[in-house]
Amino acid sequence: xxxxxxxxxxxxxxxxxxxxxxxxxxxxxxxxxxxxxxxxxxxxxxxxxxxxxxxxxxxxxxxxxxxxxxxxxxxxxxxxxxxxxxxxxxxxxxxxxxxxxxxxxxxxxxxx
Length: 112
Prior knowledge:
The protein has four helices and five strands. The protein is of the alpha+beta class.
């Protein structure tokens, strides 16, 4: 199991890469990643080509719902960001869950 610090580093890089992609220019959305094995949710925003305000909070019913939501285990998140695990195969096998509105899904599908 990866540590919360490793997940924060991995997620900042992953979300930062997404935000910097020209296909997502002008996108301003809240984003979260639920780390099922750590009981934490990392929240932040994709805005102006960068990831901003990334912070971890304990998972629970009071956590606000983000526009773009990823759910995965800590080890799978780290493997996704290091290239050891492909997003398509992780999603197809149920190791990663991605939820977003239809417009956001259409924008994200080409990038993931």
